[in-house]
Specification:
- The chain is of the alpha/beta class and 427 residues long.
- Helix content is 44%, strand content 16%.
- The protein is built from 16 helices and 13 strands.
- Strands 1-4-5-13 form a four-stranded mixed sheet, with helices on both faces. Strands 6-9-11-7 form a four-stranded antiparallel sheet. A three-stranded antiparallel sheet has the order 10-8-12.
- Helix 10 links the parallel strand 4 and strand 5.
- 54% of the residues are buried.
- Bound molecules: uracil (URA).
- Uracil binds next to helix 9.
Length: 427
């Protein structure tokens, strides 16, 4: 059947269902460059405004998978387990999690991305380790995975190329926050990657794409349904992203904190979420007798981390880069910190140089925000609340604008209970 982009756009604009043929055609034609960016942008906006039903989302995801190659790990002796986060501030969990789960017996292929906007990217963080390479051939990736148990690297150009083009377009056309588009984007990559099991960390709160628990639940159950239909054992945790994870947001700052976790220390929320996700991954992979908390305490996760970093050219003992300049924000009053907003801190870190405004921009390894208190902590007037880090001090003013109004301090003695990290589980 002859197809044209305008009639596909009109179908969704007029709130009708896209047929399987329309979906297959538009994804293929866009990947080949026959459908223009401005036409796909209009279709994305129509999808954001009018939604898609389960059949449309499943077909859209299948068409994105079919746009590229599929990997498979059947040659490995261990079961594979992967996790994907929908993106947050200070979300460095992949760094300690991948070696931890590998230390407990699974193979962890983590094809990761770079940050864009206020959420950080795992590859940008790891690239602050001197010598570390994100780009591996498929053979190199399998070799690292086979020899160390875990690999974190960039997804090759052959994997779901439709998503690469679509995600970059959505990012600059205000169409990221659509549940059908997020679900199909994440799941097409994960299914094409060939993992046997998948744990999704669906973030909820100001620093996440999903601001409400209801939207997060809908996104999670859509993704779990897509994974299960494609034979991937999939489970989702809904986790809090109203405040940054841990005490750092920024590339090298987050690597440092991740290494602290692997050394058996680190902030309690990062440890709690790392262990919770590790348990889910091991369970989904069918590994019943491992204890992730023990593997953090006894150094076996750290051993895998060191081998994994070295296998990709990195020096696990090298000093991490630090920013040339710092600026301390002090607490204006004494009392209990009751709010420290994830989105505002993410924007501040981004403005300091930790993130990029355009895909081709470089990031500063040392830039970011260090937190000296978390919601629930007691603070004293004048004590450091945040330290801003950057190589380019002319960025401080703009970052300080983001930080202004990002926190609340209530009178000493105020009864305040911080939100739990894990809010719900969907399987
Ligand atoms: N992460 C992705 O890979 N895709 C999205 O659409 C959102 C978050």
């Amino acid at each position: 059947m002859a197809m044209d982009a305008v009639s596909v756009i009109r179908t969704k604009r007029d709130r009708a269902e896209l047929s399987d043929q329309q979906i297959d055609w538009v994804i293929d034609a866009y990947t080949r460059g026959e459908v223009a960016d401005y036409q796909m942008a209009a279709l994305n906006m129509a999808i954001l405004l009018n939604g898609m039903n389960r059949r449309e989302i499943a077909r859209w995801t299948a068409a994105m998978i079919a746009s590229g190659e599929r990997m498979e790990f059947s040659s490995l002796s261990r079961p594979t387990a992967d996790k994907h986060s929908t993106g947050g501030v200070g979300d460095k969990i992949t760094l300690p999690l991948a070696p931890l789960v590998a230390a407990c017996g699974a193979a962890v292929p983590q094809l990761s991305g770079r940050g864009l906007g206020h959420t950080g990217g795992t590859l940008d963080k790891l690239e602050s380790i001197p010598g570390w390479r994100a780009l591996l051939s498929n053979e190199e990736m399998l070799h690292v995975l086979d020899t160390t148990g875990a690999v974190i690297c960039a997804a090759g150009d052959g994997l779901a190329p439709a998503d690469k083009k679509l995600y970059a377009l959505r990012d600059v056309t205000g169409t990221v926050e659509a549940i059908p588009l997020i679900a199909s984007s994440i799941m097409s990559k994960k299914i094409a990657e060939g993992t046997g099991s998948l744990v999704l960390d669906v973030k909820v709160g100001t620093g996440a794409f999903m601001k409400t628990i209801e939207d997060a639940r809908e996104l999670a159950s859509t993704m779990v349904g897509l994974g299960t239909d494609h034979g991937v054992r999939t489970v989702a945790l809904l986790t809090d992203m109203s405040t940054p994870l841990g005490l750092t947001a920024g590339n090298a700052l987050e690597v440092r904190e991740s290494v602290e976790v692997l050394a058996g220390g680190g902030p309690a929320d990062v440890v709690e979420l790392t262990v919770a996700l590790a348990r889910e991954m091991l369970d989904a992979a069918g590994i019943k007798d491992a204890d992730p908390a023990k593997a953090l305490a006894d150094g076996s996760a750290m051993d895998v981390w060191r081998r994994m970093i070295a296998a990709q050219g990195g020096d696990p003992d090298a000093a991490l880069p630090t920013a040339r300049e710092t600026h301390v924000v002090s607490a204006p009053a004494s009392g209990v910190l009751t709010r420290l907003d994830a989105y505002d801190i993410g924007i501040a870190a981004w403005r300091l140089g930790a993130g990029r405004a355009r895909k081709e921009d470089p990031v500063q390894a040392g830039a970011g925000v260090e937190l000296h208190a978390k919601p629930g902590d007691t603070v004293t007037a004048g004590q450091p609340l945040l330290t801003l880090h950057t190589d380019t001090p002319d960025r401080f003013d703009y970052a300080l604008q983001a930080v202004e109004g990002s926190y609340d301090i209530a009178a000493a003695g105020t009864d305040f209970k911080a939100a739990p990290i894990v809010l719900d589980r969907i399987a």
